[in-house]
Design goal:
The chain has 285 residues and is α+β, with helices and mostly antiparallel strands. Helix content is 39%, strand content 12%. It has twelve helices and seven strands. The protein is elongated.
Length: 285
């Protein structure tokens, strides 16, 4: 008979299913730069028990798995992975966005995007596939080649592709760096081969060539905007002979219980100068 080790809270499991959670838990704790003691204090446990779980000497209860995942701010999809590794059934469903059960959510998102017009706003999933967008986004995409607009649209690809918006973004080095950093932070949280492949694709795009400018050269953004200091890095983009300036804001759902909903993000673009405000207002019927 295999020997059993007793954890501080009385759980045992060296030979029971669920030993695979140890390396996963240790990985998340390391990413969060927490010691076993710090995690134990946050989760109302003991460093000894955390050590036993990480080394496979103890199997945490389902409640403890969820508590640890919460204290480590583990993404919802990965919480299911932790539960499975500990020998429990997934807790969080993954419902397709076109499922009838998501009808109220889809309607709410549509109303939100329309209400934000004429300012651009869109909804993307965990790999930046565009699931909804308003007319403000359609305005920015005018002139983009049709082959890049074939569904499914990808926000990162549309923005950074040399034939996409990148050719019109005046501060491309700064904005590209911001987007790649954003994706890098996500990759540190999600084990997503699709997101990794997208990152490698868009990071390898060559800079677009601009007429009258050397390849890769862009107009620098100064620290002073038209009405004072900039409060955030803007996306400065040419449109119909004008230069528009936006700062973006990203919102997610609070305490989601579904993987699909947890990975949705609503990105809105706020005019960063009076000229952009005036121009967008002129588009309103």
């Amino acid at each position: 008979m295999a020997a059993r080790a007793m954890a501080a809270d009385g759980t045992t499991a060296p030979s029971s299913p669920g030993g695979a959670i140890g390396p996963l838990l240790r990985g998340w704790r390391t990413r969060r730069r927490l010691s076993q003691l710090e995690l134990a204090l946050r989760a109302d446990s003991s460093a000894r028990h955390i050590s036993f779980v990480e080394t496979g000497r103890a199997r945490p209860s389902e409640e403890m798995v969820l508590r640890l995942a919460d204290r480590l701010d583990v993404p919802v999809r990965e919480r299911n992975a932790l539960l499975l590794a500990a020998g429990y059934a997934p807790r969080f469903t993954e419902t397709a966005l076109d499922d009838p059960a998501m009808g109220a959510l889809r309607e709410g998102l549509t109303r939100l995007l329309r209400g934000y017009e004429p300012y651009p706003a869109l909804v993307v999933d965990g790999t930046y596939t565009v699931v909804a967008a308003n007319r403000g986004v359609a305005m920015l995409l005018e002139g983009v080649p049709e082959r890049l607009l074939t569904p499914p649209l990808n926000a990162m690809r549309l923005t950074l592709h040399p034939e996409g918006l990148a050719s019109r973004i005046r501060n491309l080095p700064q904005w590209r760096g911001h987007l790649l950093d954003q994706m890098g932070r996500q990759l540190a949280l999600h084990r997503s081969p699709a997101l990794r492949a997208l990152y490698e694709e868009v990071a390898a795009y060559p800079p677009p060539e601009r007429s009258g400018e050397p390849s890769g050269e862009t107009v620098a953004v100064t620290e002073e905007g038209a009405s004072g200091p900039l409060f955030a890095l803007p996306m400065v983009i040419e449109h119909d002979g004008r230069t528009l300036s936006f700062v973006s804001s990203i919102s997610t759902f609070n305490t989601p219980m579904d993987v699909t909903v947890a990975e949705l993000a609503i990105e809105t673009f706020v005019p960063a100068d009076p000229a952009t405000v005036t121009y967008l207002a002129s588009l309103t019927p």
